Amino acid sequence: MKHNFGAGPCILPQEVFKEAAAAVLDFNGLSILEVSHRSADFVKVMEEARENVKKALNVPEGYTVLFLQGGASLGFLIAAYNLAGEHKRGAYINTGTWATNAIKEGVNAGLEAVSIASSEDKGFNYIPEFDEIPEDIDFLHYTSNNTIVGTQFKSIPETNVPLICDMSSDIFSQPIDVSKFDLIYAGAQKNLGPAGATLYIVKDSILGKSSLNIPSYLDLAIHAKKDSMFNTPPVFSVFVSNLNLKHMLKNGGVEEMGRKNKAKADLLYGEIDSNPNFEGTTEVKDRSLMNVTFRLTDDSKKERFDKLWNDGNIIGLKGHRSVGGYRASMYNALELKSVQALVDIMKSL
Ligand code: PMP
């Protein structure tokens, strides 16, 4: 069995893999891969998945949950289109590659994208502060967890404009107060399910209010009206996401995920900080609980360390090419014993 520290697509619980595999062969007499998305059986799955997201995140009344396609990369554009208001200006917090891409897509949607805070000066290794949102802004967009550099917001930015968040890499990893947001979006392939679906949680009161002419697929109001069935949804990804949501709810929900994720992060950061062979790459206060980035203090030990973890059945530890070093992604389904296996290897260097 391999310890999968990959940044995504991520590991899911073994039980979920087994149930998903069984449904490929038999889902009420058909394969889940061939079933019509309009069949009563699948419509029920879609409804359940949307409900289970609401249960898992304690989503208040007045929000709609959607499973669409295109990944968070299309989400950047969908967010800008749907939240564009009279000013046609969005504020962005630039915390790395994905936030930078969100800014680009804001511009592609025809908006002026104002970067109100950025940590680019230090290679995005911290979460920047901001004073005030300028006047004449339609929304504030941020990325709650920065998968590549390994930083994470520890609190929700305070603002009086509509708030959008790309939660691709930390959704379902801990409780969140959904009522603070007008739009949350996340690719499924981190903590939710297999790649293919993208989750949207949208405040109903913003639907249909955009100042832009929105192409149909990008219009969340159309998807909401069609109960997330405007076109063929990513059937298998939604099906497995629902299995995973049920599994999560049965096993203590996001509160328990939060406790486990904190314990895993404490264990690994503890080793990084106490072992002279390693150092963290981000500011301590902004460290991500999901993606732990670190490097060797002496590069001459690289060959030996790489052999040790490869021999130890660890995969996906290589840092993103833009950061270098190592990145241990520790999504919900990664067990503490896998982190312990990595820590033991680090101790043995
Ligand atoms: N935002 C974040 C925070 C991500 O981690 C990723 C993917 N790693 C993306 C956006 C892009 O997502 P996708 O590949 O689903 O388009």
From TrEMBL:
It catalyses: 4-(phosphooxy)-L-threonine + 2-oxoglutarate = (R)-3-hydroxy-2-oxo-4-phosphooxybutanoate + L-glutamate; O-phospho-L-serine + 2-oxoglutarate = 3-phosphooxypyruvate + L-glutamate. GO terms for biological process: L-serine biosynthetic process; pyridoxine biosynthetic process. GO terms for cellular component: cytoplasm. Residues 4-342 form the Aminotransferase class V domain. L-glutamate binds at R38. The keyword Amino-acid biosynthesis applies. Keywords: Amino-acid biosynthesis, Aminotransferase, Cytoplasm, Pyridoxal phosphate, Pyridoxine biosynthesis, Serine biosynthesis, Transferase. GO terms for molecular function: O-phospho-L-serine:2-oxoglutarate aminotransferase activity; pyridoxal phosphate binding. NCBIfam families: PRK05355.1 (NF003764). This is Phosphoserine aminotransferase.
